[in-house]
Specification:
This protein is an alpha+beta fold. The strands form five sheets. Strands 12-11-13-14-15 form a five-stranded mixed sheet, with helices on both faces. The protein has a five-stranded mixed sheet with strand order 16-17-18-19-20, sandwiched between helices. α1 crosses α3, α20 packs antiparallel against α21 and α21 runs antiparallel to α22. It is extended, with a radius of gyration of 36 Å.
Length: 654
């Protein structure tokens, strides 16, 4: 018995693999018969290879299933094959310990044990002892008239996971890509990673059109060479259009020159939630302080950085499985933690945390742990992110790392098990964290303490769930030694101030927000049927005129009167007088509009005052360009049908 090494041999690969994939794919999109594509002797193999490359890059992988690779593998442990057969879409034929007697079995020794002389000696001694026990068990079973496979099948229960085995494996190309994506990763177990690397090198040599980009997705980094435009030239040579290189920000083009945006940088692909590359982050290798350390793709038609979370495609399954998301700062932090075995980790894609990013994470979990570098100044500057997370109804915990550490360096200093254990033992709720960070140095300063309490209470006030908010208030009261009723009053003040500010924004929108204000206060479904011309000529201009007179538009809606589209609004002036304004196109002349004003408050507005106000509104509407005749004014004691419809729409929206 002895230690053995890995050996992988290719037994067979499907003949005419490129032509087979090409024919299968063309069958999906062509009226022609796949047999004609496959048997075409005049086909250009190079063009077929380029076509297959594009198919693989596009994600259309079903044609790849028609091509198979068969490998003979030896020098691997039973521990490896237990992992290998978890890949279901494959065929396996393994050496049996029932039919093959392990009279002098070989074994696999892990590198960590081999590197420790004492551990290695103990390991080899154990293997020898197991061999002796196996031999004795076979002898004992022989005394009971058991022999051959009958004796072997029971004696094998004493054999170790380290025992060497041999296996034949057949996988199609699609399953191989999946296998390499998971097993070539640095976080994969060392033995199966070595096997995957060896198999990938064979596949790459035989079928580069399929396997050129195969490998661990968590390590799919690249490099943009130094120089003015080597990347741009290479991209143009590959058939990419300059228009798209400019729009996606990969190339900067001016009248006099062209430059690669990411020249001399390590490239981090940024994926959409479905796995498509939509942008890049580039890290310089230069030590020059004048050069920005990181550079990101500019926003484009496919990339909006405030809505993208770096690593979400690779992490989403882990987030769902663990029902938790770890949020870190940078690209390398994400990669390092993935390589350490923690998959449910993402970063905010080089920006301050945004509401859209939080909502994207919330699709997979309502539990987030924010991991901060051991930098107190940086932590204080980023505390705003906690309030945004809380406001979306997400449970937040915080993990500050030791001074001088970041997730990248810290995850490399310990095993995955130790890192997971450290996180569980040291993550804390946001109140304790925020109190500890902000209270440092101001313990004896009453004004600073009061400001801190207000800051923490504000964070609690944004939590939408009342029960959660109450529990946090109790914790805050205990930590800061402040009565709960005082904290409740402070929250009420904050909420009142927030509501007043929102009301002020609703009643007095900025000029460029007024059309949006009209749309936000009416039923969206009804607005959808209105043409932009009607909205511009009636709704927008009417609101502009009314607000220009000092009226506050409380409710507004488009209305349909005898198949004519118009506008109705309930408005209130500074004196408190309330009227309902109707603007409706004239039946026989849609370019002109009728104005009617209704009042239901006789204590405030007399008929004469209402008539005067009607004329003022009509004149204001004329100044906006609306064609208006002399208005009519009424003072009804009961709401008419149009007011009732307006109130119904308002209630439905609320």
């Amino acid at each position: 018995m002895a230690k053995v090494n890995l050996d992988v041999q290719l037994l067979e690969v499907s003949q005419n693999a490129i032509a087979l994939i090409y024919a299968a794919c063309r069958q999906c999109y062509s009226e022609k018969f796949a047999g004609d594509f496959f048997m075409d002797e005049g086909a250009d193999l190079k063009k077929q290879e380029e076509f297959v490359k594009k198919i693989v890059a596009s994600g259309h992988q079903s044609p790849l299933e028609h091509v198979k690779f068969s490998f003979a593998i030896q020098g691997v442990s039973r521990a490896l094959t237990h992992q290998l057969v978890r890949h279901r879409l494959a065929s396996y034929s393994q050496q049996s310990q029932r039919y093959v007697k392990e009279k002098d079995f070989d074994y696999i020794i892990p590198p960590s044990i081999e590197g420790n002389p004492e551990a290695k000696k103990e390991f080899e001694s154990l293997m020898a002892a197991i061999q002796q026990s196996y031999t004795k068990l076979s002898q004992y079973l022989g005394q009971d008239n058991l022999s051959g496979e009958t004796a072997n099948q029971d004696a094998r229960f004493a054999l170790p996971q380290a025992a060497e085995t041999k296996i034949v494996v057949t996988m199609n190309c699609r399953e191989l890509l999946h296998f390499f994506a998971h097993r070539c990763c640095a976080r994969a177990q060392w033995e199966i990673r070595a096997l995957a690397d060896r198999m990938l090198s064979i596949c790459l040599e035989k079928l580069p059109a399929v396997f050129a980009e195969a490998g661990a997705k968590c390590e799919a980094l690249g490099y943009c060479p130094e120089g003015k435009e080597p990347f741009t030239n290479a991209a143009l040579k590959e058939g990419y259009k300059m228009e798209y290189l400019e729009k996606t920000g990969l190339t900067i083009k001016k009248e006099e020159w062209v430059r690669d945006r990411f020249s001399g940088r390590v490239m981090f692909p940024i994926h959409s939630i479905s796995g498509r590359v939509i942008a890049f982050g580039g890290r310089t290798l230069s030590l020059e302080k004048s050069i920005a350390k990181y550079l990101n793709s500019p926003e484009s038609d496919i990339y909006h950085k405030s809505r993208v979370v770096y690593g979400i495609f690779q992490a989403k399954n882990g987030i769902i499985r663990e029902d938790k998301c770890y949020l870190v700062e940078g690209y390398t932090d994400v990669l390092a933690m993935h390589q350490s075995g923690i998959e449910n980790v993402v970063a905010s894609s080089g920006t301050s945390l945004t509401v859209d990013q939080i909502r994207l994470i919330r699709r997979f979990t309502k539990n987030i742990t924010i991991i901060y570098d051991g930098d107190q100044a940086g932590i204080k500057a980023s505390l705003r992110g906690i309030d945004l997370v809380l406001e979306e109804g997400i449970n937040v915990k915080v993990l500050p790392l030791p001074d001088g550490e970041d997730p990248d360096s810290f995850s490399k200093s310990m095993s995955a098990t130790a890192l997971t254990q450290y996180i569980k033992e040291n993550e804390t709720d946001f109140i304790k964290f925020k109190t500890r960070i902000l209270l440092t140095g101001i313990e004896n300063d009453p004004l600073s303490r009061a400001k801190l309490i207000t800051d923490i209470v504000y964070s609690i006030s944004v939590i939408p769930e009342e029960i959660v908010r109450t529990e946090y208030l109790k914790e805050c009261s205990r930590l800061l030694e402040v009565r709960e009723d005082v904290l409740y009053n402070e929250i009420r003040k904050l909420k009142l101030k927030k509501n007043e500010a929102q009301t002020a924004r609703d009643l007095n929108p900025l000029p460029d927000q007024r059309p949006v204000q009209v749309e936000q206060t009416i039923q969206e479904a009804r607005l959808a049927v209105l043409s932009s011309q009607v909205r511009s000529n009636v709704a927008d201009l009417a609101v502009q005129a009314l607000e220009g007179m000092g009226f506050a538009v409380q409710d507004g809606t488009h209305e349909e009167q005898d198949e004519r589209l118009g506008f109705a609004a309930k408005v209130q002036d500074l004196s408190g007088g309330e009227v309902v304004v109707h603007v409706t196109p004239v039946a026989d002349d849609p370019s002109r509009n009728e104005l009617s004003i209704h009042s239901y408050d006789h204590d405030r507005l007399t008929q004469q005052q209402l008539q005067t106000r009607s004329k003022e509104i009509a004149n204001a509407l004329r100044r906006t360009g609306l064609q208006m005749p002399e208005p009519s004014a009424t003072g009804n004691v009961r709401p008419d049908e149009r007011l009732r419809d307006l109130e119904k729409l308002r209630q439905q929206q609320v």
